[in-house]
Input
Amino acid sequence: MSDTEDYLSRHRAWAGAALERALERHAPLLPPDLSPVVRAGLLTGGKRIRPVLCAAAYGAVADPADPPRLDPEPLHDIAASLEMIHAYSLMHDDLPCMDDASLRRGQPTPHMRFGVEPTARAAAALIPMASLQALESTERAGIPPPVAGQIAAVLLDAAGVCGMVGGQALDMLGEGRALGEDDLGRLHAWKTGALLTAALRMGALIARAPKEQVEALSAFGRHMGLAFQIADDVLDATSSAEALGKEPSDADLNKSTYVGLLGLEGARRRGADVRDRALASLEAAGVRSPTLEGLAGYILDRRR
Ligand code: GRG
Output
C-alpha cells in the first residue's frame, strides 16, 4: 500500500465517524422512513476524497499558534458537510430520471434498495442537513460568524447553479452530443471541480490562511478537479463495472469524455499536465504540503 493510500484509509475512518455524528444530530429532523435511506447514501463506501482534501488543506496552511489549531473533531465535522452534499448528488444522479444507475460503490444504488420516491426525498433532505452541518459545526469550532458564513457560502455556492447543479444540467443537455473541449471543461469545472475546489478553499478558510494561500489552494482544487475528471474518464474507458463498482459507463450513456476527445494517451498526458499545474499553484504561493502532493498523485493514478 502506498503512503497516500495508507493515509487515505486512515483518514476515511474519521470521515465515516464524522458522518455518523452528523446523522445522530440530524436524524430527529428526518421522517423515520428516510433514516435508513440517508444512512445508505452517506455511509456505503466512497473514497471520502472531499473531506480528506479539506482537512489536508487546513493542515497545509494552519498556523500552529494563530489561530489556535482546531481539535480534529470540529474540523472533521465541518469537512463532513462536503461529503453530505456529495452523497445527495450521487443519490439523485443515479435515479432513473438521470443516469439510471443500478450499481454504485459496489452496491445496489439506494433507489434500487429503497425505491425512487424515498431516495429522491432522502437525498433532498441531505441538502439542508449539509447546510446546517456547515453552519453549526463552524459555530461549535469557535470560528467567528463572518468567517463561518463565508465557509458555508463556499460550500453552497459550489453545490449551486454555477457549480454542481449547473454542471449536472450541462451534462444532461450534452448527452448524445459531441462536446468540444471548452464545453466539456465548463461542464466538469462545475459538476465535479466546484465541490473539490470548495473542499480546499474551506480548509484554507478554516485555517484563516492569508488570501494568497486561500487562492493558491483554490487554484490547486480547480486543476485537481479537472485531473479527477480526466482520471475518471480514463478509468471508465479502461476498467470494468465490477472493478469500478459502478454502472452504467459513459459510453452506455453516450457522454462526451476526455478519452473520446484526446484519445487514451492524450487524456493521460493532459491529466499529468493539469496535475503539474496544480502543484505549481501551491509552489508559487510557498505552500509546502507532501500530503497534498501525495493526494494529487493519488487522484490521477487511483484505480476506482
Ligand atoms: C437536478 C440538474 C439537477 C442537478 C441535481 C444530481 C446532481 C444535482 C448533481 C450530480 C453531480 C454529480 C453526480 C457529480 C459527479 C461527481 C463525481 C466525479 C462523482 C464521483 O465521485 P467519487 O469518485 O465518488 O469521489 P465516491 O464514490 O468515491 O464518493
Summary: Residues 46-47, 49, 86, 89-90, 92-93, 98, 105, 164-165, 168-169, 191-192, 232 surround geranylgeranyl diphosphate (CB under 6 Å). The chain has a mean pLDDT of 95. Residues 272 and 300 are 7 Å apart (CA to CA).
